[in-house]
Amino acid sequence: xxxxxxxxxxxxxxxxxxxxxxxxxxxxxxxxxxxxxxxxxxxxxxxxxxxxxxxxxxxxxxxxxxxxxxxxxxxxxxxxxxxxxxxxxxxxxxxxxxxxxxxxxxxxxxxxxxxxxxxxxxxxxxxxxxxxxxxxxxxxxxxxxxxxxxxxxxxxxxxxxxxxxxxxxxxxxxxxxxxxxxxxxxxxxxxxxxxxxxxxxxxxxxxxxxxxxxxxxxxxxxxxxxxxxxxxxxxxxxxxxxxxxxxxxxxxxxxxxxxxxxxxxxxxxxxxxxxxxxxxxxxxxxxxxxxxxxxxxxxxxxxxxxxxxxxxxxxxxxxxxxxxxxxxxxxxxxxxxxxxxxxxxxxxxxxxxxxxxxxxxxxxxxxxxxxxxxxxxxxxxxxxxxxxxxxxxxxxxxxxxxxxxxxxxxxxxxxxxxxxxxxxxxxxxxxxxxxxxxxxxxxxxxxxxxxxxxxxxxxxxxxxxxxxxxxxxxxxxxxxxxxxxxxxxxxx
Length: 492
Description:
Radius of gyration: 21 Å
Structural class: mainly beta
Number of strands: 37
CATH superfamily of the domain at 160-261: TM1070-like
Oligomer: single chain
Strand content: over 45%
């Protein structure tokens, strides 16, 4: 496995072009002619992550862990899949406390776990990991009585963050976790959208986040109590930051716990590997349009390359500054079982429409209880031939990984685990054939040891993990793996 790679968290938009792949898939699956010369190509935001080829270090900024409840614990997984040892420096930040610094060595072809709360007390604690002299990957894990949660970490702070989904129904707990990793204050404007209105509270405009600190905002106390719809946008007028969303669902159709990194921008496309039209599962797409123009959207359901595998796309309008809810189960053309979904903006010829932010919410009813999962889609350009999961996957379950082929060509997929011998394919998962535009639901054998999981494919795919929630709780939590992109060619 080459060390010359770079990682992209799902909150961030990548710049390498897959427009031709997307257009090819669209032509392949619906048989229509597409004249690319008449429509402008989508534009990705500037990439905010570090190039492994240009740097001898890489940084990871994790979204935060509750720190004032003894029943909740947080861990960061630092994985080294390379053939050389490296050192990681860890900075723990809190509210009103001095940063706590430590270092840890990570041997080649191994991983380490670090307690987020070690040596620091704060209502929320965020961690920065800087890898010196190597290339590694980092994830955050929370052990919560209402369900464990894995969250991706950003490679770089950003000036804006968005969350399409949010929920305070039945007095559910929704905390916005804002981390300023810099030695200067960050100033932000915070707005939120409910089912009935858009709000910009005066006290959240020009809101100051002190240097090297974490501030958590309880959204119910900020005027959004008992809201079934609660999208949030954070825009920095000075400095940059990292923003996470901590959600403890307590009723009104949702139960469980999730912690997630926000989206650091909008995108003209979002890919979802695990759509579900399964008994007991209620699926909803939550779409935030933070722009001042209405956006037309297409939702395409994809299950393979057969003529009967593609349904007519659903057409939606996302009004400016509002949240749009799309209950996929109410759409006549939704496939039965599992499927991939592509949500894309529909451009006026010669123009590029504003992007949106899309999250998928699934409430899985098991007996008399519910398990809620929320996933931010893979944005435009995030499809990759290599995906990694630093904290591993849940073994012994039949749907541990969902792999969505993002191209109109057959793909061959292998699933490996990093260990003392390097990256070794798991038995039976050396060559999984994936049809054009198809899905692979991958079972991971029971009893495998801990370690980073790497998914490699012969063409770009999107990979999502389905994780056990722990504590003998039914259902699944869900999170994307981390796409890995080749470093750019030096043009000098």
